[in-house]
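Write out this protein's structure.
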Amino acid sequence: MNPDGTSEDITRLLGAAGNGDRQALDRVLSVLYRELHAMARRHIGQNRGHTLDATALVHEAYLRLAGKRETQFDDRAHFFAYAASAMRSVVVDHTRQRLSQKRGGDRQRVTELPENFGGGVRLDEDTLALDEALNRLAAVDPRLVQVVEMRYFAGLSEEEIAALLERSERSVRRDWQKARMFLLASLRDS
């Protein structure tokens, strides 16, 4: 992750954006757009034929980021955590809307959570089931949800997540494994 601005510049702009400076938020998003777009591309993966593409995902996430007046981003890591959460929300809303337009069909629950997301996340009932399981996990351990959102919805590697959260890769890997076990059990039980 190499934004055009330095971490100090990003943090300063995020602080100004948090204080209501819309131009500062626009500047941050402009600087970090490529990273957000890469996150969205990794998330969408090979899901061709859907109406949600990487650019649409970034723009919808931007609208959610820009629309939250009370949100304050303390630093770059907080911004990316919030962006991953916003992307999750956009994908879930898009999936709900798309599925509500369908008639009939069997609803199947996801029974696995892949280790590697090279192909992207499917935009179907699995996404809704995962969202429900993540909401249950949030009640137990919100930190684990953050790791899942960054890895699954933003497509970040353990190394990238560790750098953003200022934690060790080993700690992030443990959190990922704990979250994965919880989610798998939750998905199987529902």
